Amino acid sequence: MLTVTDRLPEGLLEIEPTRLYEILDGPTLIHLPGRQAPPLFVSVLLHGNETTGFFAIQRLLKHYGDRQLPRALSILIGNVRAARERARRLDSQPDYNRIWQGGDLPEHQMARQAIDEMARRSVFASIDIHNNTGRNPHYACITRLESPFLQLATLFGRTTVYFTQPKTVQANAFARLCPSMVVECGQPGHSYGTQHAFELVDACLHLSHFSQRPVHPSAIDLFHTVAIVKVPDNVQISFDSSSSADICFQSNLDLLNFAELPAATRLATYKPGREYSLHVTDEGQGEVSDRYFTYQNGEIRTKLAVTPSMLTLDPRIIRQDCLCYLMERYPLTCKIEPVA
């Protein structure tokens, strides 16, 4: 299922993501040489509607033209079929960022092949570039608190999220091989997001190594994801207060992303006389809805002070992924030990 090549496919630098199917058979891993080795790994379009990473790679390769890259670069172009439809994934597909820890589907085998390929090349670092469908600041996500991971994250900016679930994401799989992270570049279609991703990849190509020195707490705003919030499949949702849906969320809900919400913040209303609850799981996969939300008088409110991320107004994305993640600030200290 994975095509591996050491040549840039003809037309790649000019084509729109929706037309990639015309020149690529499917997921494609492209190895390009550079002055330094081992290679930097960059994955784009794991979600077909998140195009910033692909446009950033186009900009990067046009920038260098015929010049040699500062470091070898391996580019994974992911869900070409979904990109054609401007969709996160097709209904017949698994999520391409949930296939990186075993499984029997062809997509799982593709992910395993990509991991093995990069392990053989002793990959230097991994960057998985994404967009949000809701309004969020730009931020990095890491699965380990080791110094090289934190150093990598701060190359993108101050705001960083440490998470341990879901474990099936690309960044977690590559964390066994090298410093790795996800970067969330806001909503697709914004030139600033493309430029930010371009600058990050270019900076990483110029790195000779990662500092083993701990990141100082003043250099980073670190959050820890403590829960994932989903809507049960049998519950109808809306963002329109006049709707007859089971749960009606605030019409500007995504403005609450990365806002530190006090307890008793109202997020939604629900039909009187009916019992509804959101599905909330903590890092151990336990159900913890009653820890974080109250359901009284037809209103859903926060029970604790929390900070949400990735809130979206897109019902399809909510069904395919989640409503949001809940976070707490993480007190980073200089006692974090560097990797041996």
Account of the 3D structure:
It contains 8 helices and 17 strands. With 340 residues, it is of the alpha/beta class. The mean pLDDT is 95.
Highlighted features:
single chain; 340 residues; 5-stranded mixed beta sheet; 12-stranded mixed beta sheet; 17 strands; alpha/beta; 8 helices; globular
Strand percentage lies at 25-35%
Radius of gyration from CA coordinates: 20 Å
Give the ordered list of helices and strands.
EEEHEHHEEHEHEHEEEEEHEEEHE
Distance between the termini: 37 Å
| Sheet with the most strands, sense and barrel status | 12 strands, mixed
Return the average pLDDT rounded to an integer: 95
Q: What is the SS-derived class?
A: alpha/beta
Oligomer: single chain
Helix content: 10-25%
Describe the structure in brief:
By secondary structure, the chain is α/β, with parallel strands linked by helices. It is 21% helix and 26% strand.
What's the SSE blueprint?
Blueprint: E1 3-5, E2 28-32, E3 34-44, H1 52-64, E4 69-77, H2 80-84, H3 106-120, E5 125-130, E6 139-142, H4 147-154, E7 159-162, H5 170-174, E8 180-184, H6 191-205, E9 221-230, E10 237-238, E11 247-249, E12 266-270, E13 279-282, H7 289-292, E14 293-296, E15 299-302, E16 307-309, H8 315-320, E17 324-329
